[in-house]
Amino acid sequence: xxxxxxxxxxxxxxxxxxxxxxxxxxxxxPGWVTVNVRxxxxxxxxxxxxxxxxxGEDKLxxxxxxxxxxxxxxxxxxxxxxxxxxxxxxxxxxxxxxILTERYQGTFAEQVTVPAWNVxxxxxxxxxxxxxxxxxxxxxxxxMLFTNAGVRPGDSVLVQGAGGGVATAAIVLGKAAGLRVFxxxxxxxxxxxxxxxGAVEAYEPGARxxxxxxxxxxxxxxxxxxxxxxxxxxxxxxxxxxATSGDRPAHAELTRIFFLELKVVGSTMGSKDELEDLLAFCxxxxxxxxxxxxxxxxxxxxxxxxxxxxxxxxxxxxxxQTSPVxxx
Length: 328
Known about the structure:
Blueprint: E1 2-6, E2 18-22, E3 32-41, H1 44-50, E4 62-63, E5 69-71, E6 77-80, E7 83-84, E8 98-99, E9 111-115, E10 119-121, H2 128-131, H3 134-148, E11 156-159, H4 165-176, E12 180-184, H5 188-197, E13 201-203, E14 213-218, H6 225-230, E15 232-240, H7 254-259, E16 263-266, H8 272-285, E17 291-296, H9 300-309, E18 315-319
Helix pairs in contact: 3-4, 3-8
């Protein structure tokens, strides 16, 4: 079957290890389900995998991709939860949790196999392309806002790095939930787009906000860390799920953190129950993922290049145009 996969690790030039070509179709295994992929979306996790973060040389070649929507063997339209082993289903209770592509082949292929427990019904209201955006970036944003930040309607939130998948999701979800959302971006066009999506205002990174916020959604890391901490009200919460600009800020702001009793909470992905809630939320409210571009799977490299350059707003989705077959 045709797939986009990591053939080698290169920390400096990650795309040099990306190959588009034939890979073996998934093998049948007890308790697992093979899904015919209709759409899959890119995440920064895929770039980090090509750099060897979370993916070892001994696991290569590895089909990339965490997110997918498609049809199961009975023709049901489904969405995949990307965290394998979170409950022990399909892998046994002793195996630690992992995300697809860390231990198991990913979704950038005509077919993927996952534990049956990881398969959720796709709401009819969502297209395959829309549903494929939810299991990583949008689920991460959902958990950051409503589980780890614990914000409520009327609260204020700063979202750093508008344009990225998680940040964009946080803006849209926050607006829909009645939050007062502020955003930042280095790019004027992305700031304007953030306001169109529901941010009260969008600023250049480091700009003084009109008020201290209840929570900060942080995925940028070192470049925005100090600003994030300084933007919080006393007792506020900074939730971090990524560090695309690096994980070693010049100023950790420790004095401010302890003096103002700020909370710093790490967040990774989300649970199956949270994904079910997110799917239902989108179906009921009309909220839809922001899609930057839809490309066929055989043009995956273009999507990776755009993601690496940061030249996007929202998600890049790959679609499988041909009927999934076992071609060895």
